[in-house]
Amino acid sequence: MSDTSIHPGGSFDLAGRPVARIGYGAMALERFAADPTAGERLLRRAIELGIDHIDTADFYGDSVSNDLIRRAVRPEDDVLVVTKVGALKNPGGPIPLRPGQKPDELRRAVEDNLRTLGRERLDVVNLRRLDVGPGITAEGDQVVDLDDQLAELTALRDAGLIGAIGLSAIDIDTLRRALPAGVACVQNAYGVVARRFEPMLELCTENRIAWVPFFPLGSGFPGIPKATEQPEVIAAAQRLEATPAQIGLAWLLGHAPNTLLIAGTSSAEHLAENVAVGGIVLDDATVAELDAIWDARFSGAGEPAPQWTD
After folding, report:
1. Which of 69-83, 140-154, 204-218, 220-234 is least confident?
2. Three-class SS of residue 187?
3. Runs of H (alpha helix) within 195-243
């Protein structure tokens, strides 16, 4: 599946349908809380550029992202919307979120997403476990067995409220345990300079599971270095007349055929740059240089500090 004339970057199946390998991460939409018209305009532009996979969550911007998607995305656009559960809003707290791992909290979060997206069915729901960082941690009654969580989500799927189930922020043992339940996608922090989940990516590839990395270009959090600051990435960008961000994203597309990008932005210019990544082909020498960054400098990096990120 590689029709780039229809799907930027080619396509891969997610929840039983082909979607563009270049999608859109909606967390950036919270910046449009005071200017929803501009947020709607950005989403309409994304759809015009061929993006048909949007990743969101009700807790992004206190429902702002979902509200904008409800306003901007029309049924005839045929956009697959992926949501996330496993956390709940925490107004007035030190951070705006708290763990919501218990089965009844997962159901509540599904209902919240249905309401704020204005839908009767969610295309895909990612269970954001708290197995690995970065993110908030589970303590006390928030340490919930995976089987109990999957039973709740499977019941919601059987009831027609969820189309498919994905997983986020997990370790490889969790993925292996979840495979019999049916897993549409996996989201973990991953990029050219943050590759400790490589064995999990390989397992996803073997099982035709979509791999949807968050922090694809790194971040400012400890243990997740920024790809755009690496000399090899900068040099490749200069050679190919691209931006360092485009090189980091192009590496991800070329590294595994089941990778789906959900880079987010509030800028129409950066949105166009992200979509243009689908036309960038890295030569073998450049790929080898980029592959070597992880082993040379970052493979021994420690676990990121626990902070909520996505």
Report:
1. 220-234
2. strand
3. 198-206, 231-240
pLDDT at site 100 = 95
144's tokens: 């919930």
Write down the residue that tokens 């409220």 correspond to.
161
CB 192 within 8 A of CB 274: no
Task: Please say if 60 is a catalytic residue.
Answer: yes
User: Beta strands 122-128 and 80-85: pairing type?
Assistant: parallel
Six token digits for residue 224: 């997740």
Spatial CA neighbour of 83 closest among 153, 170, 176: 153
Phi, psi (rounded to 5 degrees) for 39: -65, -45
Distance CA 250, CA 22 (A): 10
The angle, 0 to 180 degrees and rounded to 10, between the axes of the packed helices 64-72 and 103-117 is: 40
Q: Read off the pTM.
A: 0.93
Model confidence pLDDT, tens digit, residues 238-255:
999 999 999 999 999 999
What are the residue ranges of helices labelled H in 73-214? 103-117, 146-158, 172-178, 198-206
Nearest CA among 60, 71, 8, 63 for reference residue 37: 71
Rounded mean pLDDT of 43-50? Answer: 98
Supply the DSSP symbol for 221.
S
Distance of CA 245 to the CA centre of its chain: 16
Residues facing 25 on adjacent strands: 55
Q: Which of 59, 60, 251, 298 is catalytic?
A: 60
H-type alpha helices, the chain: 36-48, 64-72, 103-117, 146-158, 172-178, 198-206, 231-240, 244-255, 268-276, 284-293
Cα 65 to chain centroid, rounded: 14
